[in-house]
C-alpha cells in the first residue's frame, strides 16, 4: 500500500520559511506552500523521511492524520483510536483497533525535587 499525505507541515523559525521551502523543494521535489511559521507540502513516506533526515532548517514535521470534533475526553479518545494510524508506516494496518493502556505508575513518582525512586 502506497502511503500519501495531503498535508505535511515543516515548522521553521520565523523568517526562515522561504529558505526552508527552497531546501525542502530541492530534497523532495515536492511543490511547497509558504505559510507563517513553516512550509506546507504533500508527499509519501519517502518525501517525509527525506525531508526529516535532510532538513537543517525545519525543527519538526507535522502530518495531518485527520480531524476530530469531541465534547469530552472519552469521545475524543474513541475517535482518536479510529484514525488511520497504520497509514503512518508502510505495511501498517488501516486502523487502530487496540486500546492503549499506560503502564507508567504515575502516583509512585514525584514530579519535582528529590530523587525519583518508587516508594517515597
Written overview of the protein:
With 120 residues, the protein is an alpha+beta fold. It folds into two domains: 4-63, Alpha-Beta Plaits (2-Layer Sandwich); 69-114, no CATH class. Helix content is 26%, strand content 18%. The protein has helices spanning 17-28, 45-54, 73-81; strands at 4-11, 33-35, 38-44, 60-63. It has a four-stranded antiparallel sheet with strand order 2-3-1-4. A hairpin with a 2-residue loop joins strand 2 and strand 3. The N and C termini lie far apart (50 Å). Mean pLDDT is 81; it is low at 94-111.
Keywords:
alpha+beta; Alpha-Beta Plaits; four-stranded antiparallel sheet
Beta-strand proportion: 15-25%
What is the CATH-assigned architecture of the largest domain?
2-Layer Sandwich
Radius of gyration (Å): 19 Å
Classify the fold: give the CATH topology of the largest domain.
Alpha-Beta Plaits
**Could you give the order of strands across the largest sheet?**
2-3-1-4
- Report how far apart the termini are: 50 Å
Mean pLDDT: 81
Look at the helices and sheets and give the structural class.
alpha+beta
Figure out the total of helices: 3
Amino acid at each position: 500500500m502506497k502511503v500519501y499525505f495531503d498535508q505535511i507541515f515543516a515548522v521553521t523559525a520565523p523568517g526562515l520559511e522561504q529558505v526552508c521551502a527552497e531546501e525542502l523543494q530541492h530534497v523532495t521535489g515536492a511543490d511547497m506552500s509558504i505559510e507563517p511559521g513553516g512550509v506546507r507540502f504533500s508527499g509519501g513516506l519517502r518525501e517525509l523521511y527525506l525531508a526529516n533526515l535532510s532538513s537543517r532548517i525545519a525543527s519538526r514535521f507535522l502530518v495531518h492524520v485527520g480531524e476530530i470534533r469531541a465534547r469530552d475526553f472519552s469521545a475524543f479518545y474513541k475517535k482518536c483510536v479510529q484514525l488511520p494510524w497504520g497509514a503512518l508506516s508502510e505495511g501498517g494496518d488501516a486502523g487502530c483497533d487496540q486500546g492503549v493502556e499506560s503502564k507508567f505508575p504515575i502516583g509512585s513518582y514525584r514530579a519535582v525535587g528529590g530523587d525519583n525512586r518508587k516508594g517515597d
